Amino acid sequence: MTDWQDLLREASRLRTLGRVDEAIDAYERLLKANPDLPDSWYNLGWLQRKARRFEAALESYGRALDLGIGDPEEVHLNRAVILSDHLHRPEDAKRELGAALGKNPNYVPALLNLGNLQEDLGDRDAARDAYQRALAAEARNSLALARLAGVSHTRELDQALAQQLRIAIAGAESAAEQADLGFALAGLLDAAGAYEDAFDAAALANEASRSASGARYDRAEHERFVERLIDAFSSSATGTQESPTVFICGMFRSGSTLAEQILGAHRQVTAGGELDLIPALVSGIDGYPESVAAADESTLGRFRDSYVHGLPPHSNRLLTDKRPDNFLHIGLIKTLFPGAKIVHTRRNHLDNLLSLYFLHLDPGMAYAMDLADAAHWYGQYERLMAHWKALYPNDIFDVNYDELVREPKPVIEHLLDFLGLEWDGALLDFHRGGTPVKTASVWQVRQPLHSRSSGRWLNYRTQLEPIAGLLSR
Fold first, then answer.
1. Could you report the per-residue pLDDT of 12-28, keeping only the tens digit for each?
2. Pairing mode, if any, of strands 318-321 and 269-271?
3. 195 and 236 housed in the same domain
């Protein structure tokens, strides 16, 4: 029999090399030979999480805890992230965070995650309390201060908090911290109507974000990618395969969260949130997008199964998949599910780009850090959407945010008709629901419908003048 220490060395080697599936197999063989290794159970859980085997990861992390692993608060935190972000079980996630803080009351990562979870659930006071506790434990934690500012927007500027942010920005140890704090200050100032100062803060925050990430938007490369998508999916897909989800997509900050929350209030709909399943599928397809057009039915079946098996529980209800940038992959979606319905959200282009500019986004969205780059991205988005609509005119339904907030009932009625759903009076009271919201729109969609965000660009008309002429309308 192989000595278990040899198995441990092999499992560690494979994990270090990033050979996830082989490493999982090695750890499973190791733990069958010697099940009393808490660190190896932890490593197995970590690998299973990377492989999207979330239930198995929870079990492995649990075994690590049962065996008395050191720093158990970190294990509870990892379990909480799986439960919240992937299995859509927020109350279970909250219990795991409570367990982490029971082990270490000053564990800042758990406090930050607890605050974020409370935001998702719409409990502003609880979120603020968690961020304040994080700051009490670690006074210079820039993320805790930034998030505290994010749940403290008022029409009358909190001068003390704004000054605290300015001091923290001046003393920040890295560009990443400057960006976190700068976007928080910009949001605080914008909410209070200090628009010129808010824009200046957002500009500096975007500059810091570019410096921290090194990310740059390559306009020519993105144009080539859009061209490849158009060429690869040049004709409409055929078939009868229905989709288990309704896809809600469009520009980030175009009203997709609002559309999903309204639909999620319907008795026959489950809001799935911002699922990463299509982007994860795309990242694993060699030669995308051309290889999809050339794939045989067996390969497409594997892609289809990968998507379906990753969906959260939803009984027999209609499930929404609200990942805005899935608009890039409508060709793939319709190839896998020819019967798929696409809800496309859009809003005033200047409002949309301004909203992006005021958010600290992932470096993968480098276009958002510069208004001219964002205008270019927007033009390519419109070009691609025009192509998809030409292919699938009856399967893509536009929801105009500005029309929705101005006269919601007729827009919602037409949307329901597109999806084959009956009117449900609860839809106009969607903000009373307890569905977790995991986007920057969390506090907007916790309110009744209003049009305050329509025409926001008018507060910044001077600053937006340089890009107004770059957009088609």
1. 999 999 999 999 999 99
2. parallel
3. no
